[in-house]
Amino acid sequence: MIHIAVEGRCFVLSACQFATERDYPDGHAVADANDRNPDKVMINGGSLIVSPLGKVLAGPSRKPEDILTAELDLDDVVRGKFDLDSVGHYARSDGMS
């Protein structure tokens, strides 16, 4: 998620799933059918909040339920545009002629 924030120069709020084996229907496919365990983590979450400059502001959370909060400095979006403008000067018709 850090690369998405840095590439897009935007805040990324990533809400990831957390699931244990009991969350799946009986008989679902597993790596070892002889090692079934309802408490076994199948998807371990990883929700987080990242700034446009790639700083992790909250998380990653590996809990079944969690609330992540962070102070957002909206000026980070503007700061990020100073060194990477993905839709600016490359889109100018006078710069590529």
What attributes characterize this protein structure?
single chain; 97 residues; alpha+beta; 3-stranded antiparallel beta sheet; two-stranded antiparallel ribbon; 5 strands; elongated
Provide a concise account of the structure shown.
This protein has helices at 2-8, 75-83, and strands spanning 12-14, 18-20, 41-44, 47-50, 56-61. With 97 residues, the protein is an alpha+beta fold.
Walk me through what this model shows.
The structure is a single chain. With 97 residues, this protein is of the alpha+beta class. Helix content is 16%, strand content 21%. The protein has a three-stranded antiparallel β-sheet, covered by helices on one side. Strands 2-3 form a two-stranded antiparallel sheet. 12% of the residues are buried. The model has no long low-confidence stretch (mean pLDDT 86).
Query: Can you tell me the residue ranges where pLDDT is under 50 for at least 5 consecutive residues?
Result: none
The number of distinct helices, counting runs of at least 4 residues, comes to: 2
Structural class: alpha+beta
The total count of strands amounts to 5
Helix content: 10-25%
What coarse outline follows from CA principal-axis ratios?
A: elongated
Query: In sequence order, what are the helices and strands, one letter per element?
Result: HEEEEEH
Cα(first) to Cα(last) distance is 36 Å
Residues in β-strands, percent: 15-25%
How much is the radius of gyration in Å? Answer: 20 Å
Strand order of the largest sheet: 1-4-5
The biggest beta sheet is recorded as: 3 strands, antiparallel
Rounded mean pLDDT score? 86
